[in-house]
Each structure stands twice: as structure tokens, then as C-alpha cells.
Amino acid sequence: MAKAAGVGVGTVSRVLNNHPSVRGETRERVLAIIEDLNYRPTPQARRTLPSEHPLIGVVTADLHSIWQSRVIQGIEAALSGQDFGLMAFALGTPERAAQLAQPGHPSTLAQGLLLCDDAAYRSWSTQEHGQPAVRVGTAVQDLDYVAVDNHYGGQIAGEYAATLPGEIVGVWLRGQQVPHERQTARKGFAEGVESAGRQIMQHIEIDPHDHLHRVAGELLDRLPQRATVMTYGDQLAVALMAEAQVRGRPVGGDLKIIGYGDHPQAALVGLTTVHQPLEEMAQRSTELLLGRIRERQEGAAAQAQQVQLLTPRLALRGSA
């Protein structure tokens, strides 16, 4: 039935159970297929249908990164006191991402989806949308989204780096799969430095799969004695600080290091970094999604695209 109607198994289940989250047009199409096939669910079949407890689906690249951990915290904060469960899907591989667009994927059981990954968004874009979705972390044209203004984040880091002595060095990821937010932060950093009348002496690109501590050692070998280093993320910045300590090279003096993200470890080691309000971003994304779900349940006309761009800030600590 799901294949004939061009919807997911979860959508058919909700129609059979008269769930209010299914749009009228979709409901009528599924009911017509049910009538054509003369389908009558048995009591045993009804008992095996998925639970109608409302669910929010989170679709992301992985479930183990620091970024995703902070996002999940924000989602859980938004769902506190709400009658919604949470299920997560780690795509991980292109094959898993492709499965997201297939009828019957478990994500169709959710009343709404939070798309936290480019692959998830691309796969979602290829299917008929049986439920509302919100893009988390990146601006898109056809969905509600909440994102961080990473261009501004890079810019304030660049403006600050320009006030510090020594050569300015930027360390970035290399490759075609670099996330958009990393690219915009890099562009903003360059503009921030140049707007202050300084120049970036070196742009160093590294492979995203390189071992961070090995990269940190190679970077220290290449850096001038007096340098301010802007890294694409906190993890590399922390590794660079650790390697400098091993070599007896004080951080915060002639060598200054700036990270990006402000993950929990940054405050512990005294890393100056750009704070990304990831928990707030995820919480607001979830609240937008819950609003869209309520629209469908109440049969209200859908509002225009809703977007929110959050402002990062510079967290000044001892490393720069």
C-alpha cells in the first residue's frame, strides 16, 4: 500500500489509526489505495502497527561527535515536558543516506524530522514529504532552518587576531566535502583580518582524516617563533596546545592559539575560541518543528518559511 500510494509505511499506519498529523490530500490518496486493494486490517495486524506515541526524528552523520552531543542536549531541552519521544538516525555512509529516501524507512514513523546533516537534507529533498522537517545548522531555500552566523564568527576572530603581535596563520580543512559552515568561517576570518589592515601570512590546509596530534606536531614545526594561529575547530586547537606544552613552548605568549566552537574542553584548557550557541540552535530548531507539527494537527494553513540566524561570540581565555 505504501509503495502504491508513494508514501512511507508510517504514513499508512497513521492513516489506518486516524492520526491527525497526516495531510488531507495524502490521507485521501492512501484511503483510495486501501479501498482499491480491499484491505481490511485484522486485529493481529493492528497490534503489530508502530506505536502512535508521537516521535521526533533526528537525522545526522553520526551520534558520537562533540557537535552532535551538544545538539542533542538542545533538542532534549526543547522536548522537556512535551509528549514526544526522540529517535535518532546516524547515516554514516552514502548507502544509509540513500535509504532515508526509501518507502518504509523508520524515519517515516516520526511526526517531524530535524535534519542535522547535508546528506540527510539531500536525501530528504528527493522524496515526497510526509512530515514537516527543519534544517539544523545550515541555511536552505525550501525549509525552516536555524543556523549560526559563522561568517560573523570568523570575522570577529579575524578582527581580534589582527590586534595580536606576530604573523597570522590560518589552519583549515582541505577537500570538497568541507562543511559549508567551515568555509564561511574561513572567509569571515580573512575579511576580519584584512578589515583591520593586516594580512594572513599563511593558509595551511590539512586533511580531515589526519591524526590531530600528528598534525599539531607538523604545524609547530612550520610556525614562526611569534605567531597567532586560527584553527578551524577546537579539537585541533587543543591538540596544538598540548603539543606546544610537551615541547616547552608557552601558549599565550609568543604563540597564541584561537579555536572555533567552544566545546566543553575549551574552557578547561583555557582556549580562546569562538562560541557557537549549538544548544540554543538545536532548541530553537525543535521548537520550530513542534510548531509545524501543531499546524498540521490543527489543519491550519502553513506559514511562510521561518529562519533564525544566531550570533556567535568570542570567548577570551589564556591561549590568545
UniProtKB/TrEMBL annotation:
Q: Which UniProt keywords apply?
A: DNA-binding, Transcription, Transcription regulation
Q: Name one Pfam family in it.
A: LacI
Is Transcription regulation there in the keyword field? yes
**PROSITE patterns in UniProt:** HTH_LACI_2
Domain HTH lacI-type intervals: 1-50
Query: Per its UniProt entry, which superkingdom is the organism in?
Result: Bacteria
Under PANTHER family, the record lists:
ALANINE RACEMASE, LACI-RELATED TRANSCRIPTIONAL REPRESSOR
Protein's name in the database: Transcriptional regulator
